[in-house]
Each structure stands twice: as C-alpha cells, then as structure tokens.
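Q: We require from you a single protein entry containing the residue sequence and its fold in token form, and nothing else.
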Amino acid sequence: PASDVGGDKSEPSGEDQAGKKKIWHNESFFAHNGGCLCLCWAAATVAEESNGKSKSRSSKGKTEDPLVQPRRLVTGGADKKVRIWRHDVKTHSWADQHRFGSASHKAMVRDVAWRPNVGIPTNTIASCSEDGVVMIWSQLMAGKPWEVKATFAIGKGVLEVAAWQVSWSITGSILAISTSDSEVELYKEQLD
C-alpha cells in the first residue's frame, strides 16, 4: 500500500576522480509481499496537450524545455503481482499507481520490461513468470485502462519451462524471452 512508502535518506558513497565526496540519495518503499524480484523504468515521456503538441512553460515570453512526465517503475514479485509505481515530486515519495488485476500471473513474476514507446503514446509492459507464462499488458494512452493484449506459454515440450527474463529490442518491435531450458525465444508482433 501507498502508506508503506517511506525511507528517504542521503549518505556519502565514495569519491569522484577529484577526491570530492559523492552523495547518493536513497529512497525506498515496500513493493511486494515475499520480495520484489524484478523492476523496469518507464521510458521518459513528455506531457501532451489536448492538441497533441508538447507542453512547454513560458516565463515572460521565454520558451523552456517541455514538461517531462513523472518517473514510473513497473515491478514484479513473489506475490505473483505486477504493479506500477509513480514518483510524486511534491512529496518525494513513490505511490502505487496501478495493480494488474485478476488476469495476473499464477506463479512468481520473474521479470518485467517496459516497451520503448518510440514517440507513440501507447504503454506496453511484458511480464513473465516461473510457470512459463508471458503476458503483454497495454494502455492506449495515459489515463486509459490497462488491458491484457496477449498471454502465451513458452516452451516446446510437455515439461513446464520457466520464463526467466523478458527484454524488448531498442525499437520495441521484438520481445526476447530467456527460459529455464537454455533457450532464447524471440517474438515479433504481426499485423492481422
């Protein structure tokens, strides 16, 4: 729950090449019962106006850089859940933005990957689990509901094969999946 979000501290952590101390800011929050097994950042996106153009701040006629959307993470855990977290810049805390519902995994979630959006407003997340099930979640644009776009089991035999990791190609056109039977499977979305 969002009330479990906490832990905010800064501690020295080494020195740079000039001998100056580096400070790493640390934030932590409770993510999953049984452990958070995987996480992935959302791609940085720019806020859109209703006309589709990027918003920019103006101060006395000056145009500044576009507004960047808040930081977001997708996580997967031993509790079989996939969740999205959003950073609140005002409170400097992480809030539970979305929990994927009843169509979720039936085994531990081993990995999650946020698809690069390459300028498209659609959000897509791949998740994989210990029982070899891969799920593709999609949101047409920010504020719209998340839906399961595809679900499939990996492996070619009768034995259960675990899916260990998922990773999108840099363009987001191919999904790679590593498996417990020493295979890498590649999936490319096809048009109907």
Notes: Residues 27 and 130 are 29 Å apart (CA to CA). The two ends are 40 Å apart (CA to CA). The chain is about 0% helix and 50% strand.
